[in-house]
Design goal:
Helices cover 86% and strands 0% of the residues. By secondary structure, it is mainly alpha-helical.
């Protein structure tokens, strides 16, 4: 049975978490790049009107899949570290019970979507041609939730490499299947069906890895374990449904109040904007078990404030150059990816990228609360944010359409979420947020953005400005961090310790460390 390592300090746990997170993040980035290519191919082959229909169909599928893995994935991530350390005999029952729960719920939801497909296509959107894509999208819920849980399980049992392979593989398979089916004449139907093909094959590979790693003595669910997982997961799934429901509800509202062309622009920008959320979601695969380990050790638990601020610092430091580049280069970037016909997508994407960096605070704070085991309190905070989002959507979308959705979801509510979680962390854990470090990172990002934005304007936001801004961002960001004193020698040393454990790709981190040290010596 898989054993779990005991960590003697926050630093030791941090190095392990950063190492595992780096591997999985690399696969997520690679998968995200493939997803961007998929967006490019789908948007260009379908064109704005059909892509608008595709966006609505996917939004409907996301509404069915709004529960994600119904909180079971989070419960598994929270329960497995303790089971691996203290009760190894519970590892297999936790995994098996999790799959039984999500599989059963997903099947029921998929059947409901299939049954209602005709009514939705005809009565809501008055487009009979949407019925078949909705049926296929409903069926995809099953493969989606099972695949997500499979990746979570592999990462939670320290099979990060295998989970990373599965994550990248299904994206690549979707990239192959999507253009093949569209060009074969299946259009929107083919684009939706490609999801099932890619995720289904990825799920089979994940099952192979899981069976090699864990011995299952029984093939049925453990009812005691199932009740424990369900009890923890209910508040999580409620909050997950609410948060994702607001985002997909915005797309569905636009389908009613705005033309398909505008919905297509928003859908393309939203698909690209999710690339930023990918980082927050990905790091949660390793951060939640890490915070669980912190709270399980009395000595480490005393330093939870350090664990939070360190996690927040490195996450923001990593995201700042990506977000600033995305904001400064949004228009030529979207023009390159989806074509000039999506003329509004660039502006939409810039606002979404801004909201991503603000959402980091709430994301990591949520992992702290879930790691502590208080899923009900997490639900309360999330529902408060969602209530704000829904009110804003109802007020702004009918009159301002896409601009209203952007303000509601990516400008106002991220700040509201940050305020709510600041209050929560200070009250429940007496965590003191290191605002000084965050301010230095923000200043560094603003400085890099100012330079790259000026370059874009000077080059008339041409495609060549993308390459120029990318090079400038890579070269300018490290010295700016040193100049603003956002990073210190201890930060660089931490990166070096992580790099020492990454034998295959560690040379990349080595170049980064040397580049930082060059300016520190100066």
């Amino acid at each position: 049975m898989i054993a779990q390592t005991k960590y003697r300090s926050i630093g030791e746990l941090g190095v392990h978490t950063a190492h595992s997170g780096s591997i999985f993040m690399a696969s997520k980035i690679a998968g995200g790049v493939v997803a961007v290519l998929l967006l490019v191919v789908t948007a260009r082959l379908l064109q704005p009107i059909d892509y608008g229909i595709f966006s609505v169909v996917i939004a409907f599928a996301n509404m069915l899949d709004i529960g994600g893995n119904f909180g079971i994935g989070t419960a598994v991530r929270q329960r497995l570290p303790d089971a691996m350390r203290h009760h190894p005999e519970r590892v297999a029952p936790i995994i098996l019970s999790g799959f039984y729960i999500v599989g059963t719920i997903a099947l029921i939801i998929a059947l409901a979507g299939i049954i209602l497909s005709g009514v939705i296509a005809n009565s809501v959107y008055h487009n009979q041609s949407m019925a078949v894509p909705i049926i296929i999208a409903s069926a995809s819920v099953i493969t989606t939730v099972l695949l997500n849980l499979m990746i979570i399980v592999l990462v939670s049992i320290d099979r990060v490499n295998q989970g990373s392979v599965v994550n990248l593989l299904y994206n690549v398979l979707m990239l192959i299947a999507t253009p093949a089916l569209i060009l074969a004449g299946y259009g929107v139907i083919g684009a939706v069906a490609a999801m099932i093909i890619g995720m289904g094959l990825g799920l089979l590979v994940g099952l192979y890895y899981l069976l090699k790693s864990v011995k299952f003595k029984a093939m049925g669910p453990d009812m005691k374990v199932s009740r424990d997982l369900a009890g923890y997961s209910v508040p999580v799934v409620v909050s997950h449904v609410a948060v994702n429901g607001a985002q997909n509800f915005a797309v569905l509202m636009l389908g009613v109040f705005a033309a398909s062309v505008l919905v297509g622009n928003y859908g393309a920008a939203f698909k690209m904007g999710r690339f930023g959320d990918l980082f927050i979601t990905s790091i949660g695969y390793v951060l939640l078990p890490a915070f669980t380990r912190v709270f399980a050790d009395k000595n480490l638990a005393k330093r939870i404030s350090d664990a939070f601020n360190t996690s927040l610092f490195y996450m923001v430091m990593f995201l700042v150059p990506i977000v600033t580049f995305g904001i400064a280069s949004a228009i030529p970037l979207m023009r390159l990816l989806v074509g000039g016909t999506y003329s509004l997508a660039g502006g939409y994407f810039a606002v979404m990228a801004f909201g991503t960096i603000i959402n980091v605070f709430g994301g990591i704070a949520g992992f702290i609360i879930l790691g502590y085991g208080n899923s009900k309190r997490f639900m309360i905070y999330q529902l408060a944010v969602v209530a704000i989002q829904l009110v804003l959507l109802a007020l702004l979308v009918p009159s301002m359409q896409a601009v209203g959705a952007l303000l509601a979801l990516f400008v106002i509510s991220p700040f509201a979420q940050a305020i709510i979680y600041i209050y929560a962390l200070e009250r429940q854990f007496t965590i003191s947020v290191d605002y000084a470090q965050l301010a230095k990172l923000a200043l560094s990002g603003i400085m890099v953005w100012a330079v790259t934005y000026a370059i874009g304007i000077a080059m008339h936001e041409s495609l060549a400005s993308l390459a120029a801004n990318l090079v400038v961002t890579i070269l300018l960001y490290p010295p700016v961090l040193v100049y603003t004193k956002a990073v210190s020698k201890s930060n660089v040393e931490f990166v070096r310790r992580v790099q020492d454990r990454m034998k295959r790709v560690g040379f990349l981190a080595e170049y980064l460390v040397r580049y930082f040290e060059l300016f520190m010596r100066a």
